[in-house]
Amino acid sequence: MAQPDTTHTVGLALEGGGYRGMYTAGVLDVWMEHGLTCDHMVGVSAGAAFGYNFKSRQIGRAIRYNKAYCADKRYAGVTSWLRTGDMFNADFAYHEVPIERDPIDLETYRACPMRFTCVCTDIETGKAVYHDLPYGDERDIEWIRASSAIPVATRPVAIGGHKYLDGGVADSIPSAWLFAQGYDRNIVVLTQPAGFVKQPNSVMPMLRRVFRHYPEFVAALDHRHEVYNATLDDLARREAAGEVFVVRPSESVKVPSLCREPDELERIYQVGRHDAEATLPALEAYLAE
User: Which sites are catalytic (predicted)?
Assistant: First the structure.
């Protein structure tokens, strides 16, 4: 993110986290209101889904459609999971809503020079796959769906002969990948507050059974908390050295994976807005250095 006249190149990484991503949506909306953008954005899961609007410059869209449809059984729920294998309905949530009901502004999306990348996990290799999204249409939305596909709650998403699930399994916070791109300034938006430590997955025995034919994916699931916490340690060192600007929730934005309360989504969104406004002077100073 950068003012349009900056001489610095700027990269932005967005953590996922399901509906905790409403925090990120609030941050991005404030930045757009202040005319901020970036050269390259990389997002994981909800970070990709809600970051989508940062490239199309649609302030308020993420919170609007999520509040409108979070309680709609066509959008997400156990019924969709039992009928289709996907908790978030592929047809309604990833086609009807973004294409017909509250469409992405494709003209603005494609005209925006920002490079936008999402992260998925290849279930055969257990490795992260970083895929650019230049079109904004259903070709890219299918990659967003793959990036957001929660194991067990969603079927693997097949694209180009490969099967993908949640990008957060292999790379929950794609900061190291972003740093490797060589931008002058780097910003990371987290969806967990300071001091958070990720714990081992309590349902690993079940996940080992479900994904027994994909041992590399199981290994990635098993070590996810270790990789996540090591990434936080690396960010803390870089932040202290002034090498990255980190925005994180000033209070808990914990929320169920399936939230049907629009007011709770609004609360999380407003925390993001508040934190973005509070950190804006420091961010602008970081970008101007």
Answer: 45 (nucleophile), 166 (proton acceptor)
Positions annotated as catalytic residues are 45, 166
Provide the CA 131 distance to its chain's centre, in angstroms: 13
pLDDT bucket at 5, cuts 50 / 70 / 90: very low
Per-residue model confidence as pLDDT tens digits over 246-259: 999 999 999 998 89
In a domain? residue 2: no
Q: What is the distance between the alpha carbons of residues 77 and 200, in angstroms, rounded to a whole number?
A: 26
Structural domain including 125 reads 10-288
Q: Residues 122-174: pLDDT tens digits?
A: 999 999 999 999 999 999 999 999 999 999 999 999 999 999 999 999 999 99
- What's the domain count of the chain? 1
What tokens were used for 20?
Answer: 């905790």
CB-based contacts of 14: which residues, under 8 Å, 6+ apart?
24, 41, 42, 43, 44, 47, 48, 50, 51, 188, 189
Q: To which residue do tokens 């996990």 refer? A: 121
Domain membership of residue 5 (yes or no) is no
The rounded distance, in Å, linking the Cα atoms of 24 and 116 is: 16
CATH number of the domain bearing residue 84: 3.40.1090.10
Q: Give a yes or no: residue 1 inside a domain.
A: no
- Structure token pair of residue 138: 């259903």
13, containing H or E segment:
strand 10-14
